[in-house]
Amino acid sequence: AFFRGLTAVSRLRSRMDRLKKLKSEHGKVQLGNITVDMVLGGMRGIIGMLWETSLVDPEEGIRFRGLSIPECRKVLPTAVEGGEPLPEGLLWLLLTGKVPTKDQVDALSKELLARSTVPAHVYKVIDALPVTAHPMTQFTAGIMALQVESEFQKAYGNGLPKSKLWEPTYEDCLNLIARLPPVASYVYRRIFKDGKSIEADDSLDYAANLSHMLGFDDPRMLELMRLHVTIHADHEGGNISSHTGHLVGSALSDPYLSFASSVNGLAGPLHGLANQEALLWLKSIIQETGSDVTTDQLKDYVWKTLKSGKVVHGFGHGVLRRTDPRYLCQREFALKYLPEDPLFQLLSKLYEVVPPILTELGKVKNPWPNVDAHSGLLLNHFGLSETRYHTVLFGVSRSMGVGSQLIWDRALGLPLERPKSVTMEWLENYCKNK
Ligand code: FCX
What we know:
Keywords: Transferase. By secondary structure, this protein is mainly α.
């Protein structure tokens, strides 16, 4: 109800007016030159999308509605005094552009809980898959099964005008965000805990409940989950999961269809699955060399990985050119709660060893670590050691960013996304005539 109040609607109108003004007054302003390199290089550096909820600066990292991660950790309401932000607060911020009060966050926690009932057929769909199917496959199957309750699809079918489509989008996105923790924890308990699922605890906030339903009630793990869900929520529009959700949504596919597509992109090893790969790699180092590994042994291991044709997961980035602030805040968390953890100590050494080696390769644009280098070992420390599962939690969190933007996409009436592609012959001819 909070987003549908009068203030929200008037804010929406003022945003639409600004968009119209921008288009009519500045529609022809050039934003840069597109080079052949950019076309052949995965569209890197082409500004091509409006993204309301967040912006990544190559040096500073992510800002959610203008607030950096350290700022969010200061100003967003927490469950524990001086603790990690509640992701509901971030969701509020992404949706409205305003920092919520603790009361507003508590109301949103309750609203999400009230929306969290998952229809029984969803679990049947997941159960139809072999238990050995990758957790991300089971998770997306669950999301697709949730789709049958889409308000958007019904409303569109009933001819709801374009200007009102944001309303069922809002309903779907909130329902989707609310229902992911039970679906995600079902997948975990099905695969790793003999299918013994755990009921939600109505007294807990969103992230704490997710942790509880997974089977982890240590207060430090609850704090970790609040941090995890907050920092993975959004990373501007061009990353694969966000862009995919926005692209599919632009066809007026409903939020479930759009977000299932996001999650499929997240399941790629160069994107979200990198957290699984990064932790498996850390574990493989310890397995091969023991935990008292020397710097020289580490350098050898990194070179061996690179020479075998693999990338070093958890390092590098498409946009960032410094250490990812999402890595840094997880490092701070580790220094506070688990400084002696052997995997954390190993990663701290790698933080020094890997960047100079990647720089030496001469082609890597950003040798510094990203979010995925760190997240797995934190979860592992508190007992969530099933590495193949970790990207599912990234997915739960990403629903907040993709969902918030989808609501704004429909509210602003953003059009079908349809960039132009060309053939190699077209490019060759074009360049010849230049
Ligand atoms: N290890 C080895 N090689 C790397 C590398 C790494 N960590 N990072 C980049 N490179 C290589 C690229 O593979 C590319 O080589 P090529 O020209 O032979 O194909 C070259 O360096 C230039 O790539 P660059 O422009 O720096 O990076 P891109 O924008 O193309 O790719 C990713 C960015 C993130 C995909 C890349 O750095 C990578 O593969 N990193 C490891 C995987 C990873 O951690 N992904 C998670 C990223 C993120 F945080 C997320 O989405 O979750």
